[in-house]
Amino acid sequence: MSKVVCPWNLISDFVTDAFKGYGVPEEDAKICTDVLLESDKRGIESHGCNRFKPIYIDRIVAGIQEPVTNFDIIRETPTTAVVDGHNGMGQVIGVKAMQMAIDKAKEYGMGMVAVRNSCHYGIAGYYASMATQQGCIGLTGTNARPSVAPTFGVEGMFGTNPLTVGIPTDEKFDFILDCATSITQNGKIEYYERIGEDVHPGTIIGLDGESIEGDSGVALKKIRNGEAALTTLGGIGEALGGYKGFGYAMVVELLSAVLQDGDYGKDLNGKDKDGNIQPYHLGHFFIAIDTDHFLSEADTRKKTGEIVRSIRASKKAPGCDRIYTAGEKEYDIWKEREPHGVPITDEVQKEILTVRDKLGLDYTFPWEENYVPYPDRHDTKSIIENK
Predict the structure, then answer these.
(1) At 294, phi and psi to the nearest 5?
(2) CA distances from 75 to 33, 79, 201, 255 (A)
């Protein structure tokens, strides 16, 4: 498998135009592109260009995701809101909902927005970063199609359910903890299949209760067919704390469904009772806490910075020369990729060309023989700016 680096301005313009070509309004298309490429900027390739066509474009074509997002406020108080996304673009719903929570927090100290009938909203860390950039602590989570088994179970009953927290610091990067409550996620298994990497031991459990290993494509099919499931943080059983991952996954499932009376569990598998595909009806929650309502943003950033630096300065294990705190590795990857672009695999290269040719867009890419350097058509600072 080979990867080719594509300049940020080229891939950004193309993805935006592609979304527009499938009916997404221009401003919404820019939001979707920004969230999508933020994944690649942070090195989270499972949620970036790798998912552009199969998760978003294909679902629009299939009619299970609406390109035009109807953001409908069902109920609202000064500090809370319940929103219906009507199966629109998850990134657009996520950005609007988190900004709503931030605006409420700025006025009243805290804000929370619960969302129902949404779709995949990309990396959760994007929304936590929205909060930290505006001086707030941000929390978000989402449920997902059922693919993870509870402790002592073998059946996928809930999603990978990320629990994500962002806290402002005085460093070049904020503290952003963005991770699933399962050991790995579906997107990572999909990515392993594309790059030919085997399943990591202990991450998937079969109906016999044993760990599934080997070919990622085979394992992915078993998960989709209900013959296997992902495991929660801590792994199979209780010996290494699998019940903890199970518990946190349930917190996200409950917060993503209870407050807005949304779908949950197997109702999120994208199929109706007759097996026909349907919208996923995902639920999200967004919480913002304004630091100026406690001490101050400056004091919060300074204190957080002191704490994370003290952790990184602690004694290292033999053979290890660095301790990382949340957000640090992603920042390092971004600084490495910023001057060059996003690395794109063979399979994604083909998908990009398929979308381009279908829409008749006038783009050439670095992996094509007729490629010429892409011009700086406009100021791309906002496109490649670190979140």
Answers:
(1) -110, -90
(2) 29, 11, 45, 16
**Alpha-carbon gap, residue 337 to 319, rounded angstroms:** 27
pLDDT(17) > 90: yes
Find the length of the chain: 387
Does residue 385 register a pLDDT over 50? no
Q: Is the pLDDT of residue 201 over 70?
A: yes
| Rounded distance between C-alpha atoms, residue 235 and residue 103, angstroms | 39
So what's the pLDDT on residue 384? 35
Cα-flanking dihedrals φ and ψ of residue 129, to 5°?
A: -70, -35
Q: Are residues 230 and 149 in contact, defined by beta-carbon separation less than 8 angstroms?
A: yes
Smallest CA-to-CA distance from 105 within 31, 166, 32, 177 is with 166
DSSP symbols for 222-259: HHHTTSEEE-BTT-SSSTT-HHHHHHHHHHHHHHHHTT
Q: What is the structure's pLDDT at 90?
A: 98
**Dihedral of CA 80/84/89/92: which sign?**
negative
Classify strands 80-84 and 110-118 as parallel, antiparallel or unpaired. parallel
Strand order from edge to edge, sheet including 282-290: 72-76, 80-84, 110-118, 282-290, 136-142, 163-167, 175-177
Cβ-contact 9, 380 below 8 angstroms: yes
Angstrom distance (rounded) from CA 156 to CA 228: 7
Query: Taking the alpha carbons of 317, 319, 322, 327 in that order, is the dihedral positive or negative?
Result: negative
pTM, to two decimals? 0.93
